[in-house]
Amino acid sequence: MSGEPPEELVLTTGRPANGGSVVARHDGRVVFVRYALPGETVRVRVHRSGSKTKSTFWTADAVEVLQSSPDRVESWCPIAGVDRSGCCDLAFAEPVAARRLKGAVVANQLARLGNYHWCAEDEATAEQVGETGHTGWRTRVRLDVSDDGRAGYHRYHSAELVHRLDCAQVPATMAAGLAEQRWPPGSAVHVALDDDGRRHVVVAAKGRKTEVREGDYEAMQRVAGRTWRVPVTAFWQAHRDAPALYSALVSEWAQLAPGMTAWDLYGGAGVFAAAMAAAVGDAGRVVTVDTSRGAARAARAALGDLGQVSVVTDSVRRAVAAQTVRADVAVLDPPRTGAGREVISALAAAGVPRIVHIGCEAASFARDIGLYREAGYQVEGLRVFDSFPLTHHVECVAALTR
Fold it and tell me: Could you confirm whether 360 is annotated as catalytic?
């Protein structure tokens, strides 16, 4: 377990790990290998920078496949891969097999970090989202700009940019012509394709006024017959079919009735608030909370006809502490880092009997499930969605009761 890591190794890979790697071993040391599938023999390049001599594990990239998995396919993404863009890190996996890998990772994380058995790893799978397929599903993307004014995607864990923009996640009409344009160095180019098929391009840079290069500053999105105008720079679900799917699932799992009170925490533009408002009716109450002022403006505009909805711009922790009426249901859709102990303890202390929790990172979601269980909640239902095809990312939804 000592000595500098070698530049290259030949390894046989095992089970999938969180973060898009698979596990291999060399002389008793764990090696996390990207761009490989379970059961493959691969030549890997070990990351020497950051691979400390006394570390219990190394990280590596598969640079040559010597014996391939039957689940390996020609990459769906022309720009992703080793030393290329970090966008589609599972583009070389057959999509059904990729969903099984994602399900296995979530099952493993739930067991390890949440002390919860969802299902056996070899039986787990993520569910397909909508009918869009595994390419061209993205509605929003952010591009960064290099010193020479060219937009691009980042290489994996790198400040370097790849200036080809034909990522397989992105519809062709969304990226068309952007690579040929020049942008303010160091800026961010936000691109959205709205539900009318219109493209909106907004340039944002520190110290500069936000510039609309194409379309409008706000993009029009529709869910369940209601229209939102959301800033191109604000959060909206990346997968075009995800908002309708999650909204319907929240409506089902919240089990709200007329006159009840619901909290929509990390609520963004208020898509879930709209669904819950329909369930609680005029006699009920919905409080939607987010720190983003842009999202709050979009929520107020879209939900202005719903007198039972209050839009709060504040942290979830402070907003929960300020509530004087206990919620019958709380829905949480936190950022990738999850809700965490402080927020979950606040919900438990407030006596919220039912929770619908959404998580977009397997480890933080599993940790949060463990915290709910420590607080006395039981998992009533759990589903995992392949909301980010061609990548290792997933979306998990759990219903919890106490």
Answer: yes
